[in-house]
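I am writing to request your help with a piece of structural work I have in hand. Thank you for your consideration; the sequence and its tokens are set out here:
=====
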Amino acid sequence: MLQKGLPFLFLLFQALANGQQLPEKLTLYFDYDSFQLSPAEHNKLTPYLAKQDSIANLFILAYCDDRGSLDYNIGLSQRRAENVAGLFTLNLLKQAQGKGEIATADHTKIQIENNRRRNRRADMVIQWKTYPKVLTPVFPENPALEPEIIVAPKTIQPEYTTLSATLKPGDRILMKGLAFKGGRSIVLKKSEKELDKIATFFIANPQLHFEIQGHVCCIDAATRDAYDEDTLKQNLSEARALMVYNYLLSKGIAKERMQYKGYGRQFPLRQGREQQNKRVEILITKSD
């Protein structure tokens, strides 16, 4: 039984308690623009197909690289998820969802191609019937009682302000030199100067309070945030904002002055390329 449309996070399980083991995770990779598994990738799946009568639940998230339009990649990733789910022929509880493309960070040409190959994939979590107790997802506790509210993105064209002691509430700063590893909240080494510049400024201007705002690109309106490869959750914009928050905190900036929030792709830019929606902004909220 294939279920779609549920609020879908890469589920965290309450496992190790009571002697339970973690569910198994398997990643399958696809050729460019294909939703069919190659023979080599299909072979990785064969042991699980042979034991599918022992599987209780199957969760699948599929992705694309960043080539092609947003709508096309959503459809392709969904076909990838459904194709993998369809190989399991028994009446399992299956949740399969395509999440579209994963943005590729700015690297050398070879690194970009390697990242794209890694992003053409389906991540699976297999929950076995043989566990002593049924594993329960931490979120959502009850999808039927917690319907996901989908808000259409609102395109904006913000006016960015330069760093100065005259900043006032409502002014917005773009951390232009900040870049992350693809799908992660780890800053590239070349971005350390941008973090230092921001820290130095706010240390010198203790009267300013602010919110660190994370944004991502390349997801559709039904997806609240991009997938974070480290947390295995869809909270990438929040994780990146939190990274900046923690960095400034480590430099001695009082936590009472700072807030952080991830906005997913709620506010894509009206002008510019889709990749430019992947950004971190600082909004001045108060000036003492």
In short: The chain is about 25% helix and 20% strand. The two ends are 58 Å apart (CA to CA).
